[in-house]
Amino acid sequence: xxxxxxxxxxxxxxxxxxxxxxxxxxxxxxxxxxxxxxxxxxxxxxxxxxxxxxxxxxxxxxxxxxxxxxxxxxxxxxxxxxxxxxxxxxxxxxxxxxxxxxxxxxxxxxxxxx
Length: 114
Hints:
- The chain contains five helices and no strands.
- By secondary structure, it is an all-alpha fold.
- It has one domain: c-terminal domain of poly(a) binding protein (Orthogonal Bundle).
- The longest helix has 39 residues.
- It is rod-shaped and about 80 Å long.
- It starts with 6 loop residues before the first helix and ends with a helix.
C-alpha cells in the first residue's frame, strides 16, 4: 500500500478554520486549536440564538398588541380569546404591525369583533 501524506488537506482544513475565526480576540484568531474550539462554540451559540430570536419577537408582538388593546379597554388575553372564538385567524405579527403602524385599522378591527 502506498503512503498517503496529508499535508495539503491539513493545510486546507487549518486555513478554513482560521478564516472562520478571523476577527476573534487573542489566540483564537491565530492558533489552530483555540480557533477550532472558538468556531465550534460560535456555531452552537448562533444556532441557539437564531431560535431565541423568534421567541423574543413573539414576546415583543404580544406587548405591542396588549398596549394597543388596553387603550380600547381590552386585555391581551381577552382580545386573543375573542379572536379565536370568532374564528379570525390573524397572527400576532400582523396584529402587532396593525397596532403599531395603523392604529385606526386596529381600532376598527376591535370594534367589529366586540
